[in-house]
């Protein structure tokens, strides 16, 4: 007889009689109650004992057989498989591993040691000071739904992968928008569509910095970007900001500096707009150090009263500025849609870098 013990809930979300039978037998195999070679209870008797249909029991046995826990054959009673065929029960490996520190790459070790900002509470609050949230009533739901449906119908021609750099039509629309709204004269080929600006910052860190290099970072600045750069093992050279953004007179002359991350159109979090004099200083500094500038234009669309100031990349004649834009502030961070405008020489390597973890772009969203 199967000794009915409460099955462990090792599979969150598992429900139903079949799932309970599966767990029950799997646990009994794992803890040795059912030893290798032992007969499993007959499907008929187990069904009667648990007051479930025989089909339910048979389905659970078939699953256990498919996973190598039971050996079944037509007309024969099911038996527990040999120990070699039976993988350890879930949880066993995990709990054994949890006791020792996992063996990680240098990147993994650095990441473990890096403190991340806490995720916001899901609990509703009376006054929400969370920055960057978009009021749901401002989202153009109807227009979005219409466009979404039209796009779904248009896409039916093929459901194959989209190129990693993103849909050609979206990139060409972005090219036009960036020229009009941000003063950027780029080719659509320079645009790489990604899942939000955070996913744009990550390859900048990985592709442009080595451990031991240094990067310039605004103080105070956007912590999640800083963490991306620090995870490479590069040193953070914090540079003060004032009401006009980055204080370019304080830029480090460290010879290992390879990159500066800046938010010139709206310094994060203080809001200063970097004046033209400082923009030129920054570009000249980058030229002297042969350094890249990562321009995070996370909310460059927003200005009160006057046209948004053009992007830093629009006055870069030396191909040093990597521009990052996002739909998170103007539409919604739930879209996870952002883009990079890359200096032409960086396009191939950034496309490759995007292809490795993500393969291709999303086209439907
Ligand atoms: C300065 C800055 N950069 C980047 C991001 C990330 O934006 P995204 O949602 O596009 O990843 C944020 C998010 O608030 C931000 O404040």
Describe it.
The chain is α/β, with parallel strands linked by helices. It has 2 domains: 17-93, Winged helix-like DNA-binding domain superfamily/Winged helix DNA-binding domain (Arc Repressor Mutant, subunit A, Orthogonal Bundle), CATH 1.10.10; 143-150 and 160-358, 3-Layer(aba) Sandwich (Aspartate Aminotransferase, domain 2), CATH 3.40.640.10. 34% of the residues lie in helices and 12% in strands. The chain contains 11 helices and 10 strands. It has helices at residues 17-30, 43-50, 54-66, 92-98, 106-113, 141-154, 168-182, 197-208, 223-230, 276-289, 347-358, and strands at residues 70-71, 79-80, 191-194, 214-219, 235-242, 245-246, 257-262, 292-296, 321-326, 338-341. The strands form 2 sheets. An 8-stranded mixed beta sheet has the order 3-10-9-8-7-4-5-6, with helices on both faces. Strands 1-2 form a two-stranded antiparallel ribbon. The two termini are 54 Å apart. Bound molecules: pyridoxal-5'-phosphate.
The CATH fourth-level homologous superfamily of the largest domain = Type I PLP-dependent aspartate aminotransferase-like (Major domain)
- In this structure, how is the largest beta sheet organized? 8 strands, mixed
The percentage of residues in β strands lies in 5-15%
CATH architecture of the largest domain: 3-Layer(aba) Sandwich
Rg from C-alpha positions?
28 Å
Q: How many discrete structural domains?
A: 2
- Write out the strand line-up for the largest beta sheet, numbering strands in chain order: 3-10-9-8-7-4-5-6
Tally of helical segments: 11
Q: Report the span from N to C terminus.
A: 54 Å
Q: Structural class per helix/strand content?
A: alpha/beta
Mean pLDDT, all residues? 87
What is the CATH class of the largest domain?
A: Alpha Beta
Order of helices and strands: HHHEEHHHHEHEHEEEHEEEH
Family: In the C-terminal section; belongs to the class-I pyridoxal-phosphate-dependent aminotransferase family.
Keywords: DNA-binding, Plasmid, Pyridoxal phosphate, Transcription, Transcription regulation
Protein name: Transcriptional regulator, GntR family
Pfam families: Aminotran_1_2, GntR
């Amino acid at each position: 007889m199967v000794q009915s013990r409460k099955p462990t809930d090792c599979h969150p979300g598992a429900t139903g009689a079949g799932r309970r039978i599966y767990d029950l037998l799997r646990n009994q195999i794992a803890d040795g109650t059912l030893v290798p070679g032992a007969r499993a209870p007959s499907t008929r008797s187990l069904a009667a004992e648990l007051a479930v249909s025989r089909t339910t029991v048979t389905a659970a046995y078939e699953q256990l057989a498919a996973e190598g826990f039971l050996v079944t054959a037509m007309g024969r009673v099911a038996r527990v498989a040999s120990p070699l065929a039976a993988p350890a029960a879930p949880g066993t490996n995990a709990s054994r591993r949890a006791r020792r520190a996992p063996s990680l790459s240098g990147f993994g070790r650095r990441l473990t040691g890096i403190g991340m900002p806490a995720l916001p509470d899901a609990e509703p609050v009376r006054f929400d000071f969370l920055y960057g949230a978009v009021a749901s009533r401002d989202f153009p739901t109807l227009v979005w739904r219409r466009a979404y449906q039209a796009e779904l119908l248009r896409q039916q021609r093929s459901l194959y992968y989209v190129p990693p750099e993103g849909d050609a039509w979206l990139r060409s629309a972005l090219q036009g928008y960036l020229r009009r709204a941000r003063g950027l004269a780029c080719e659509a080929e320079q645009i790489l569509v990604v899942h939000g600006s955070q996913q744009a910052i990550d390859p900048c860190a990985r592709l442009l910095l080595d451990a031991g290099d240094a990067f310039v970072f605004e103080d105070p600045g956007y912590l999640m970007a800083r963490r991306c750069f620090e995870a490479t093992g590069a040193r953070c050279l914090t540079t003060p900001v004032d009401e006009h953004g980055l204080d370019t007179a304080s830029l480090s002359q460290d010879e290992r500096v390879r990159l500066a991350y800046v938010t010139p159109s709206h310094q994060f979090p203080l809001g200063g707009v970097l004046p033209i004099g400082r923009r030129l200083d920054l570009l000249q500094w980058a030229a002297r150090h042969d350094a890249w500038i990562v321009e995070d234009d996370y909310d460059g669309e927003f200005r009160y009263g006057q046209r948004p100031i053009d992007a830093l990349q629009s006055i870069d004649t030396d191909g040093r500025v990597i521009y990052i834009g996002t739909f998170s502030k103007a539409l919604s961070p739930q879209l996870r849609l952002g883009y990079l405008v890359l200096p032409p020489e960086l396009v191939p390597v950034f496309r490759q870098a995007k292809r490795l973890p993500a393969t291709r772009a999303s086209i439907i969203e």
